[in-house]
Amino acid sequence: MSAVTSSLSKRQENDLLSLFSHARLHLLYKASIHGFTAAAFHGRCDLQGPTIIVAYNAAGFVFGAYTSKDYTQSGQAVIDGAAFLYSISAERNKPLRVGSISGKHAFTDGGPGPNFGALVFLHEDKPAVQSNPGDCFNFQEAEMHGNDLALTEFEVYRVEDLLEKPWRNIQWTSERKQQLMTSIQNYLPEIKAVNQARVLLVGPVGAGKSSFFNSINSAFRGNMTCQAITGTARTSVTTQYRAYTIKTGRRGGTLPLILCDTMGLEENADSGLNVDDIVSIFKGHMKDRYQFSSCSSILEDSPGYQKHVTLNDTIHCMAYVIDTCKVSLLSQKMLDKLTAIRKRANQLGIPQILLMTKVDEACPLVAKDLKNVYRSVYIQEKARQLSDSLGIPLSYVLPVKNYSEELELDQNTDILLFMVLEQMLNYADSYFENQITDDQDGSNGPDCAWAEEELLKSQYNVVGWL
Ligand SMILES: Nc1nc2c(ncn2[C@@H]2O[C@H](COP(=O)(O)OP(=O)(O)O)[C@@H](O)[C@H]2O)c(=O)[nH]1
Ligand SMILES: [Mg+2]
């Protein structure tokens, strides 16, 4: 099959690129090959991140629309401050660029062709545009498309753009990696009676929770490991609660950190990990290797229920694990579940962070070079979107790439993974600080005196964001 090629001339392509800072265009869809239909458009362009529509007419105009948001067929009106319409023609030196009318949405994210109000593409599944200037965008029709509404070609490109400056500064050096490793290995919980910080991983099925543990384990071991089972099934391949310790090197010591892996969350109330089980884990009642059941939660008389708990057993930090590629697909039901979990964690004063996994799958520029992770416009947009929909400050959102198909460790992957661990330990310390009351050194402190009543007393004694 011959490769699908762009119909843009070099000059037209340069004009288009001049509308961005460091963008590259990746052709997703070409109507003359894939069909002038809404279904063909959505099949190739939904969930692709920032995209630009390029429509061609016989009058010589190349015109269209850019949006930084995903097409998802949600039926919603999408607000996008970065969206614009544009037109390029031989007579003009610079492309015409039209932003949306203040307060108006950019497009309606429906099942038909892309609908930017003033320009509706693939109108009635035909090679045609409907032109309604004044509807969300204002322009002169002669300037936008020369009043020629029949299309000779219609293409959509993914816009892969990098920020001039990264939104977080990372030192991608072996010294930094070593420094992070040393600081994690030397970590001591603020409370002497606690030996290891206990971090819980929670998130939808397939988000990369088990892979995160495997990746951390591999990075500290020095070779690839696959202790936790991972996979791509629709329901969770993790069915047991696991509290993993991590070793440094083959015969090395144990890290002062336990990563607790759970079954995945599912949308429906009666499937996947349930919120009551998460609360039992928070409080330290669930023993390692407890077999989850979707239909019932752990009870005091269940096998695997730990009645007497100390501060060593409770969760000191929780990490939500979310697949970056699926941020736009998080359903209201899943968001509600996450909000319910957040509420319970807040009540118990458990600090929380959010890991955005699969940044390599989400952005080709990041797949090519992980150092682009904080320069990718797409990743930044997804981080903002997650922060907004879950009400989490952006500073608690950490992009990460797990090892998935590699055979060798990679310095940059390790640095991102270790940065996440460092934050987890910092937040666990915030939890411990909140537990320290009278006894500063912990000798008669929380270790023995601590009980559920104490924990309940510290409700609303909040650490981090709420
Ligand atoms: N490319 C890529 N794949 C990942 C990443 N994290 C996880 N995966 C893959 O996603 C799938 C689900 O991962 P898994 O750890 O089982 O998810 P869990 O259900 O949250 O435990 C597996 O096939 C992993 O190899 C990542 O950061 N990048
Ligand atoms: Mg798993």
Structural commentary:
The chain has 466 residues and is an alpha/beta fold. It folds into 2 domains: 10-160, no CATH class; 174-457, P-loop containing nucleotide triphosphate hydrolases (Rossmann fold, 3-Layer(aba) Sandwich), CATH 3.40.50.300. The protein is built from 14 helices and 16 strands. A 6-stranded antiparallel β-sheet has the order 1-10-2-3-5-6, sandwiched between helices. The longest helix has 25 residues, at 411-435. It is elongated and about 75 Å long. The protein starts with 9 loop residues before the first helix and ends in a 9-residue tail after the last helix. The model is unreliable at 441-466 (pLDDT under 50). The structure holds guanosine-5'-diphosphate and magnesium ion. Guanosine-5'-diphosphate binds at residues 203, 205-211, 230-232, 236-238, 264, 321, 357-358, 360-361, 401-402, 404. This is Interferon induced protein 44c2. InterPro entries: GTP-bd, P-loop_NTPase, TLDc_dom. Belongs to the IFI44 family. GO terms for molecular function: GTP binding. Pfam families: MMR_HSR1, TLD.
Q: What is the strand and helix layout of this fold?
A:
Layout: H1 10-17, E1 24-30, H2 31-34, H3 38-45, E2 51-56, E3 62-67, E4 77-78, E5 84-88, E6 96-99, E7 107-108, E8 119-121, E9 129-131, H4 141-145, E10 153-160, H5 174-185, E11 197-202, H6 209-221, E12 242-247, E13 254-261, H7 275-282, E14 317-323, H8 332-347, E15 352-357, H9 359-362, H10 364-368, H11 377-390, E16 397-399, H12 411-435, H13 446-449, H14 452-457
Parallel strand pairs: 11-13, 11-14, 14-15, 15-16
Antiparallel strand pairs: 1-10, 2-3, 2-10, 3-5, 4-7, 5-6, 8-9, 12-13
